[in-house]
Amino acid sequence: MIDQTAAFAGREIFRIGYGTAQLPRLRDRRTEAVALVRRAVELGVDHIDTSQFYGPDVVNELIHEALHPYPEGLRLVTKVGARRDDQAAWLPALSPAELRQGVEDNLRTLEIERIDLVNLRLHADDHGNGLGDPTAEQLGALADLRAEGKLDLIGISNATLAGVRMAVDLVGTVGEVQNPYSILNRSDDETLAFCEEHGIAYVPYFPLGSAFTGGPKRIAEDPVISRVAEKHGATPSQVALAWLLHRSERILLIPGTSSIAHLEENLGAADVTLDGEDMAALAEVEQAGTPHN
Ligand SMILES: NC(=O)c1ccc[n+]([C@@H]2O[C@H](COP(=O)([O-])OP(=O)(O)OC[C@H]3O[C@@H](n4cnc5c(N)ncnc54)[C@H](OP(=O)(O)O)[C@@H]3O)[C@@H](O)[C@H]2O)c1
What we know:
Layout: E1 5-8, E2 11-14, E3 18-19, H1 30-42, E4 47-49, H2 59-67, E5 75-80, E6 82-84, E7 90-92, H3 96-110, E8 115-121, H4 136-147, E9 151-157, H5 161-171, E10 174-178, H6 189-198, E11 201-202, H7 215-221, H8 223-232, H9 236-247, H10 260-267, H11 276-282
Parallel strand pairs: 3-4, 4-5, 5-8, 8-9, 9-10, 10-11
Antiparallel strand pairs: 1-2, 6-7
Helix pairs in contact: 1-2, 3-4, 4-5, 8-9
């Protein structure tokens, strides 16, 4: 049986949290969106991953409506480094002034004075794709905000291994690395190993493979995953998430969903115990091809 909890941001949390990137799909069904967030917390979620730019500008409001005043012990994590244009396209926003504004916007809309963790969200190109490297100036801007008491921990997202190393060198404690990783995409193994060595939480995004490239469907249709799922009376999604929990004790999950049924299913992954034979079989699952899947 794997550990269902892990140390994160100063306390022991449930290893499956909730990522809110799918909530904007419920923007016209606000009551459902609020109910989904409340259900997550009711079921034991105490780690919510968000951003001001999700929506755009909708998700933090929904979290606030659902949970404020926030339950004791809830860990709220955000990310800065991007903004959206009039058509909701993603644009970089990585200047020190934009990073500061990003943190201030999150504090305002979540109505808190200090946030548990802020990820510096990097990219290699101007469309937000590809792993990127931070600059000393960007890390310095977040370190200043930390010194001012506006955030507890600095994290780094969508970063190369060299970028993660640089963050550790420049800001000391790094609270998490949030990179794409799943049973369909293990291209970030080296960074995961670095996090294990340095005791840094590794929080994979796209944990079911990216929905943009059909990840959840591939997982549902994969014969190896389905065989293991049948053996455990679980679903293929639960096996893919359980694989991550077994892959490393440093991994914390934040699967995103707009559905209460999927939320409940995903949280159930904590009860799926994989054995050595399952892990060996799952190691053979075909990779999705490109690092960003
Ligand atoms: N740092 C970054 O750059 C970055 C980038 C992307 C995401 N994130 C964070 O990481 C979180 C996790 O990513 P994500 O999971 O939202 O990635 P995603 O691949 O964009 O979305 C998850 C997809 O999986 C589906 N899904 C969820 N549970 C399922 C289940 N049990 N069975 C079948 N389909 C299921 C969802 O559809 P339904 O809504 O229908 O369930 C959705 O289409 C995000 O919510 C966000 O907080 C960070």
